[in-house]
Amino acid sequence: MQHHQSRMERMESPRRLPRWEWEQPQSPRGPHELYFKNLSKQKQKQVMEKNGNNRKLRVCVATCNRADYSKLAPIMFGIKAEPQFFELDVVVLGSHLIDDYGNTYRMIEQDDFDIHTRLHTIVRGEDEASMVESVGLALVKLPDVLNRLKPDIMIVHGDRFDALALATSAALMNIRILHIEGGEVSGTIDDSIRHAITKLAHYHVCCTRNAEQHLISMCEDHDRILLAGCPSYDKLLSSKKKDYMSIIRMWLGEGVKPKDYIVALQHPVTTDIKHSIKMFELTLDALISFNKMTLVLFPNIDAGSKEMVRVMRKKGVEHHPNFRAVKHVPFDQFIQLVAHAGCVIGNSSCGVREVGAFGTPVINLGTRQIGRETGENVLHVRDADTQDKILQALHLQFGKQYPCSKIYGDGNAVPRILKFLKSIDLQEPLQKKFCFPPVKENISQDIDHILETQSALAVDLGGTNLRVAIVSMKGEIVKKDTQLNPRTYQERIEVILKMCIEAASEAVNLNCRILGVGISTGGRVNPREGVVLHSTKLIQEWSSVDLRTPISDALHLPVWVDNDGNCAALAERKFGHGKGIENFVTLITGTGIGGGIIHQNELIHGSSFCAAELGHIMVALDGPECLCGSHGCLEAYASGIALQREAKKLHDEDSLLVGGMSVKKEEVVTAVHLIQAAKLGNPKAEHIIRTAGQALGLGVVNIMHTINPSLVILSGILASHYIDVVKEVIQQRALFSAQTVDVVVSDLVDPALLGAASMVLDYTTRRIY
């Protein structure tokens, strides 16, 4: 058995899960139906009409070896069982047709499948050059077969070199490709081949949520990815209760009991053949010393397999009383053998994937599966200089029973895959689309695209309010909705999704084409992942929150997330004073103090995404306490919270109110009252405002001396009250060379919303042009 992978539907979750917990469906509308929640009966009917009501989907399944057939066979049975929807053509190539590897094409015939074509594509030699020549031979032979079959879609599995030839041929001949088990990570050249097939494939079926996220990270279209689970699990999870004693006796002899034998399956590592052969030799030595009956399967056809067979013969494995060496075991029987083994040892993917379904102990050797997700039944031996380490692992693992793992499937993959196949619209363009990350601005333009009404959904998560707006390419706020920001995570996510869905519907009526969603939020943000790492104290339950996934899944739109200070800087760059300026700083003066830095036209995030925390620049060694826990921060002097604190002190001393002012008994004293008192001539209020402005000025001077921008933009509700004092401090304290830097007040009314929108508008137009 070798590598396989599949995938189960994307589920909506507000937080990124470390591992998918598989559940059996409770009803026909169980968890596995979520992928199709937006594929209404009407849409399915439309797809059928487009494809032709009586038009069956012609599916070509190509299998190269015993391992991929174990994954493809359940799908083939499912396709064959629905002849009203599908026509199945089976192509067999690779090691299936080689006697030394068991002539495993016979098991396909025994399963009552008609083999349309047999292609001898293996160039013998079992070295690197023969693998390349085999790919070339397959590429020469496949075009004629595909021209005759003319399939609508080809199903390709996994990461073998034969599969790469299949995918290359189909892609160049404009045949749609469904790739099974893309997105997984193992640890050898297989990774490169698997990912190359992913880029050629039009549709993807994967096993785990991690694999799904890898595909998304590789810029694959979300709508063409199905998280289904591994097809082989459909058979695995229903097989253990079958008669197994006769199978054990057949392959291991009379007198061998369940849990008292070992199954060994080890393949060469093509990127380090010498080391893998050495480890195989040590494995056999350890197994001989361990003195338990062992079923050894011959390695696959990769480069280095010939040398591994020589090692087996050198050790006398084929004639040793404790060993049974076989070229192939039918999958149904192999399942029973590993399910009741005392231990499975080697470097085959079946050890870390299928065997986990039975809780059988596994010893995974070397680096061939180093990147795979594994259950607790797997013990890794990454390297071994002697047999002792492997022998110790055998003593630790043999005979144990671990909890059964469903990391790779829940037994319902095939129904999901068949439904996915039925949903494929053959009238859709064949050309793949990729979801690329942001790139540097491209000035080329497409007039048809510019003439469209491009817009963005902008979300601003403030300490008090939650706002969602439709923003046009010109920065006009077409529609805006405001609600109180809920205090709990769950309520907040629900409100955001509801507001975004309503805004997206309204955009249709307003003739606005929504390109994506931009989110501005307080706290430290990882914009690459769309995750809020740490929140400010103003927003509760807002740390380690994945914002991108639930919103993207709900709206089927790309989503960008960044800190509100960074968004303000982006707004100035696209719509405000920063337009056309290469280096500038935006400083926000509101409830808190924040900002963003644009350097050489790019936003600076810093190594841990906490650049431009300008509110926490120290302007005094021993000053007021800041919300961050430190003292003397700029925010502790000049923020709205700081002014409110000083206003309350004056009010408590009966020193705040002057003629023309009044504060009701139940009214909360705020910074607004302090500013009003200063305007009416209250000397103490004037002093506090001036001190705050001086502190802000010192912060600006520090920014000038550190970054040397050509422009500083003061934004927020307090900016106009500070600007004159800030300029005075610059003239008094800044170096002469920095005194010429312009300091201006922002003209933008909603910088957070505009900045959130600019992330969408800048990125999408760059990508499409």
From TrEMBL:
Signal peptide: none
GO molecular function: ATP binding; hydrolase activity, hydrolyzing O-glycosyl compounds; metal ion binding; N-acylmannosamine kinase activity; UDP-N-acetylglucosamine 2-epimerase activity
Localization, UniProt: Cytoplasm, Cytosol
Domain of life from the UniProt record: Eukaryota
Pathway noted in the entry: Amino-sugar metabolism; N-acetylneuraminate biosynthesis
InterPro entries with a match to the protein in the record: ATPase_NBD (IPR043129), ROK (IPR000600), UDP-GlcNAc_Epase (IPR020004), UDP_GlcNAc_Epimerase_2_dom (IPR003331)
Binding residues for an N-acyl-D-mannosamine: R524, T536, D564, E613, H616, E635
Gene Ontology terms describing biological process: UDP-N-acetylglucosamine metabolic process
Tagged with keyword RNA-binding: no
Record-listed E.C. numbers: 2.7.1.60, 3.2.1.183
Catalytic activity: UDP-N-acetyl-alpha-D-glucosamine + H2O = aldehydo-N-acetyl-D-mannosamine + UDP + H(+); an N-acyl-D-mannosamine + ATP = an N-acyl-D-mannosamine 6-phosphate + ADP + H(+)
Domain UDP-N-acetylglucosamine 2-epimerase: 85-422
Alphabetized UniProt keyword annotations: Allosteric enzyme, ATP-binding, Cytoplasm, Hydrolase, Kinase, Metal-binding, Multifunctional enzyme, Nucleotide-binding, Phosphoprotein, Transferase, Zinc
UniProt KW Transferase keyword: yes
Active-site residues (renumbered): D564
Positions with a binding annotation for Zn(2+): H616, C626, C628, C633
Predominant place of localization: cytoplasm
Cellular component terms (Gene Ontology): cytosol
Self-association and partners: Homodimer. Homotetramer. Homohexamer. The hexameric form exhibits both enzyme activities, whereas the dimeric form only catalyzes the phosphorylation of N-acyl-D-mannosamine.
Record-stated family: In the N-terminal section; belongs to the UDP-N-acetylglucosamine 2-epimerase family.
Name of the protein in question: Bifunctional UDP-N-acetylglucosamine 2-epimerase/N-acetylmannosamine kinase
Source organism of this protein record: Anolis carolinensis (Green anole)
Protein's gene: gne
